[in-house]
Specification:
Blueprint: E1 5-8, E2 15-19, H1 30-33, H2 37-40, E3 42-46, H3 66-79, E4 86-90, H4 92-104, E5 111-115, H5 127-134, H6 137-140, H7 149-162, H8 170-180, H9 185-192, H10 199-203, E6 209-214, H11 222-231, E7 235-240, H12 247-250, H13 252-267
Helix pairs in contact: 3-4, 7-8
């Protein structure tokens, strides 16, 4: 199992490990990797298993439980010798972060950040969130599991639009659709269709937890944000106004400032 990992900044600086979301890749964090956040922090952005340029095993067991995801994050921390990094998980990346906490705990971390993500999924999520997501066909995105390329592409385009609170530039939109299409449909299904409850894991997490959510987030309704804030032992919630599922892309300067301030406190 080989993982592609992009880094930015000086390795001697405090480390922030950025974990992208479902059907994405490290390019989701382009504005952070190429921006001023890398002046003060060592940014590490892997393509998670099955995504981007990383290996893509096809067995469901490679995706449908916490162990492989947790092992990948632990391997990156060890391979790059990251000393008490901050884990940042966006969308499904937040669940990968929680997978790591479930298996390895927080002893090697300075802090965690949940961005447009949640401590429950599938049948474990609040009924209100399940209804809201289930009633939004662009979010459920059943066509993203299709082997028919036209069906898959149309569903991917609709899903990418649903991840933004406001319209994006045409070139940016094409860029995002491109790297979303790098994930095979069977891997999309195996990695997304899980029923996880991390509430107790969050309660057992002793390091600070930054929790960021946009008030126009369609994939992660408000009930999931509120549940996450209530679950972590030491939450620091931030709500972005007029923002969708991708605050780091839609408001990069504000996002970098909040994350940078949080990281400075955690690593002081």
């Amino acid at each position: 199992m080989k993982l592609a990992v992009r880094t930015a900044g000086e390795p001697a600086n405090p480390a922030i490990l950025l974990i992208h979301g479902w059907s994405q890749c490290h390019l989701s964090w382009t504005k952070q990797l190429d921006g001023p956040l890398a002046d003060n922090y060592y940014l590490v952005a892997p393509d998670t298993r099955g995504h981007g340029s990383s290996d893509k095993p096809t067995e469901p067991e490679a995706y449908n439980n916490s162990t492989p995801w947790a092992g990948d994050i632990a391997a990156i921390i060890n391979q790059l010798d990251l000393r008490r990094p901050i884990l940042v998980g966006w969308s499904m990346g937040g669940k990968v972060m929680l997978d790591y906490l479930a298996v390895h705990g927080d002893k090697k971390l300075a802090g965690v950040a949940l961005v447009g993500s949640a401590v429950t999924s599938g049948k474990s999520q609040p009924p209100e969130a399940a209804r809201q997501r289930g009633d939004d066909p662009d979010v459920t995105g059943k066509g993203l599991y299709s082997d028919d390329i036209a069906t898959n592409l149309r569903a991917t385009m609709a899903f990418v639009k649903a991840c933004k609170g406001n319209p994006v530039d045409e070139d940016e939109f094409a860029f995002m659709v491109g790297y979303n299409m790098m994930v095979p449909p069977q891997i999309r299904a195996a990695s997304r269709l899980r029923n996880d409850d991390y509430k107790q894991i969050a309660a057992n997490t002793n390091v600070p937890a930054l929790i960021i959510w946009g008030d126009k987030d369609r994939p992660m309704p408000r009930a999931l944000f509120d549940e996450s804030v209530a679950s972590f032992a030491h939450p620091e919630p931030h709500e972005f106004k007029d923002c969708g599922h991708s605050p780091f892309w839609e408001y990069p300067e504000k996002f970098d400032r909040i994350l940078g301030d949080f990281a400075a406190r955690c690593t002081a």
